[in-house]
Write a structure and sequence with these properties.
Elements: E1 2-8, H1 18-27, E2 32-36, H2 49-61, E3 65-70, H3 87-107, E4 111-114, H4 125-144, E5 149-152, H5 166-176, E6 181-186, H6 187-193, H7 197-204, E7 208-213, H8 233-242, E8 248-251, H9 261-279, E9 282-283
Length: 284
């Protein structure tokens, strides 16, 4: 069995252009790349047709496969919130996601993550969830036109109380009732929210389409190099093998402090390859 590796441009968002980030990810030895679609990287509202074509060509010329989009949202994009009491923000959020679906069709991207938003004082959890699900039904209908995958992405409580666990995502999948809706499992988020990696992966099962891979100490919300925190990577890989996972582990980097993203990308790949070897998995 093989598990494929990718890396996200998110960590470079404050340091380089998206094009330079793609080059560095290729240089770090990855065969897949995941684009952050918040400004100033591949933000759909900003990237013109000729720039999109050039970015697609760059990815191909470097021998990379575009594996996914990481959207702006949660703590990194408070302006995007399906559960905002302001109708204009809810509409802009849905349009941002739809724009991502269209951008994906142009670039040949198969999936993106979907984040629920923060719930502010005065909005009940029930109302927030209704607004969110209304929007996701519309988004799902748009995704189905191109068979684009929407990966529901459980978060940690400080970002949103609406989708914290895999169980929350599974309930939303049941309601949305579409083969285009899957689960993206974020190890850094779940190391804080619900540290039961192997059972979560078993629960997700056939619905699991992608893994966002990062490490932390289980307390602070950071995305450090794999092997530098308390995430049980051997257990995660063994669980992925158990469910016959055939998607990507996409390494991510994010810190509130300046950090050496090049090192995080390289160290994460090298660490995962060691874990793969121990478990008896090949990387592709």
């Amino acid at each position: 069995m093989s598990i494929r590796l990718s890396a996200c441009t998110l960590g470079y968002n404050r340091q380089t252009t998206v094009e330079e980030a793609v080059r560095r990810i290729a240089k770090a030895g990855y065969k897949g790349v995941d684009l952050y679609t918040g400004a100033p990287h591949a933000w759909p509202q900003d990237y013109l047709k000729n720039e999109r074509e050039s970015l697609k060509k760059l990815i191909s010329d470097l021998g990379l496969k575009l594996t996914g989009f990481a959207v702006a949202g949660g703590g990194l994009g408070l302006q995007y919130n399906f559960s905002s009491p302001r109708e204009s923000i809810r509409k802009n959020t849905l349009q941002y996601y739809i724009d991502n679906v269209h951008l994906a069709a142009e670039l040949g991207c198969p999936l993106m993550n979907v984040l629920t938003g923060h719930v502010i004082y005065g909005t009940s959890k029930e109302q927030a969830m209704k607004w969110t699900m209304d929007a996701l039904h519309e988004l799902t209908a748009e995704a189905e036109k191109t068979k684009f995958i929407l990966g529901l992405h459980p978060q940690y409580i400080a970002e949103s109380p609406l989708m914290i666990t895999v169980d929350d995502a599974l309930q939303m999948i049941k309601e949305l009732n579409s083969s285009c809706v899957k689960i993206i499992y974020d190890t850094a988020q779940q190391n804080i929210s619900y540290r039961n990696f192997m059972d979560d992966i078993r629960k997700a099962g056939r619905h699991l389409c992608y893994v966002h891979g990062a490490d932390n100490d289980g307390v602070r919300w950071t995305h450090e190099a794999l092997g530098k925190g308390t995430v049980d990577w051997e257990g995660i890989v063994r669980a992925l093998v158990e469910i016959n996972f055939d998607g990507y582990i996409c390494t991510q980097s994010w810190s509130e402090l300046p950090n050496d993203v090049d090192s995080v990308m390289r160290e994460s790949r090298e660490y995962l390859e060691q874990v793969f070897k121990k478990v008896g998995v090949s990387s592709a």
